Amino acid sequence: MNISIQELTFNYNSTPTLNNITLQIHQSEILGMIGPNGSGKSTLLKCINKILEPKQGKILLDQQSITKINRIEIAKKIGYVPQSTNTNENITVFETVLTGRRPHITWQSNKKDQEKTWQALKTLSIEKLAMRNFYELSGGEQQRVIIARAIAQEAKVLLLDEPTSNLDIKHQIEVMDLTHKLVLKEKLAAAIAIHDLNLAAKYCNKIIMIKEGKIIDAGETKTVLTEDNISKVYEIKVKVNHYKNTPYIIPIAPLN
Ligand SMILES: Nc1ncnc2c1ncn2[C@@H]1O[C@H](COP(=O)(O)OP(=O)(O)OP(=O)(O)O)[C@@H](O)[C@H]1O
Ligand SMILES: [Mg+2]
Fold first, then answer.
1. What value does the mean pLDDT of the chain take?
2. Ligand 2 mean position to 128 CA, how many Å?
3. Residue 254's pLDDT is what?
4. Which of 77, 78, 182, 223 has minimal Cβ neighbours within 10 Å of its Cβ?
5. How far away, in angstroms, is 34 Cα from ligand 2 center?
6. Is the pLDDT of residue 22 over 80?
7. What is the pLDDT of residue 90?
8. With 70 as the cut, is the pLDDT of residue 256 above it?
9. How far apart are CA 153 and CA 175, in angstroms?
C-alpha cells in the first residue's frame, strides 16, 4: 500500500501546525520523520491515521481518499503506535495485544486471533509478560507491548510515533530491525517519528525534516541527513561521518 499526502494543512488554532505538506510513503519503505520538539510530527501521523482532520489537502491510501474510508477499515489498514499510552486499565498484556485484532473480530476472538497475539508477543520477546497487568510494566516494556499490538493487527501501514524513546540500546535496535524486516517481508509502508538521528540514518529509506510545520528537506536518507540541514533545523553544530555507507551524526555544540 502506498500513501500520498498532498498539500496538507492542519490547524489546532489560528496558526497552522502543518503547512502545505506534500509527501509519499512507499510500500516496502520506512520514512523517518525528524524535527525538533513541537514541529508537527505527531500531528502529521494523527492526520494520516484519521484521528485528526486536516483543514486542507488530501491523504490517499492507494489512490483512495481517507475521508471515504470508515474507522474500521482504517483500523484494518493502519497500525498506529502513539507517542505515549496512558492507561490505568486493569488489563493484561495479552488482552492489550489482543485488542490489535479487534478490527478483524466479528463477535468473539477466535483461535487465530489468539495465535496472532502469541506470535506478536514472541516477536517482541515479551511472552513472559503476557499475564502481567499492562499498567504495572516499565515504560520500555509497555512500549514493546504497544508495538506488539500494532503487529498483531496485521495492517498494511505502520505509523510509529517515537517507538524507541523508552527503550534501552538493545531493544532500540531490536525494534528497528524487526520493523525493517517486517516492512520488507509484508511489503508494508511505514512512517516513524524519531529523535535519534543515528537510528533514523541506519533504518530509514527516506527522511523528511520538519520544522514549525513545514518540510525543510525530504528524500533519500543520505542526501537529507547533512551537516547543513541538521544545523539549520536543530540550530546546533554537528559532524556527519559515514560508516559502511550510512551517515552517523556527532553533535558538537549549540550554534553561537
Ligand atoms: N491537542 C492539541 N491542541 C493544541 N495544540 C496542540 C495539540 N497537540 C499538539 N499541539 C501543538 O502542535 C504543535 C506540534 O505538536 P506535535 O505533537 O505534532 O509535535 P512533535 O513534532 O510530535 O513534537 P515532539 O517531538 O515533542 O513529540 C506543538 O506546538 C504543540 O504544542
Ligand atoms: Mg510527537
1. 92
2. 30
3. 79
4. 223
5. 10
6. yes
7. 84
8. no
9. 16
Domain-located, residue 166: yes
What's the number of domains the chain is made of?
A: 1
Contacts of 238 (CB under 8 A, 6+ apart): 227, 230, 231, 249, 250, 251, 252
- Does 99 fall in a domain? no
In a domain, 35, yes or no: yes
Domain extent for 54: 3-86+155-254
Protein residue with its CA nearest to atom 27 in ligand 1: 37
Report the first-to-last Cα separation within the chain, whole angstroms: 45
Q: Is residue 61 predicted with pLDDT exceeding 90?
A: yes
Whole-structure pTM value: 0.94
Provide mean pLDDT across the span 147-175: 92
Nearest CA to ligand 1 atom 1: 12
Please state the three-class secondary structure of 201-245 as a single string. HHHCCEEEEEECCEEEEEEEHHHHCCHHHHHHHHCEEEEEEEECC
Task: Specify which of 101-105, 123-127, 249-253 reaches the highest per-range mean pLDDT.
Answer: 123-127
The x, y and z cell numbers of residue 231, run together, are 544545523
The domain spanning residue 177 has which CATH number? 3.40.50.300
Residue 172 lies in a domain: yes
Spacing, Cα 111 to ligand 1 middle (Å): 40
In degrees and rounded to multiples of 5, residue 44 shows phi and psi of -65, -45
pLDDT of residue 231: 94
One-character DSSP codes across 81-103: E-S--------BHHHHHHGGGGG
Chain centroid to CA 127: 23
| Cell numbers standing for residue 28 | 516496502
Residues lining ligand 1, Cβ inside 6 A:
12, 17, 35, 37-43, 83, 193
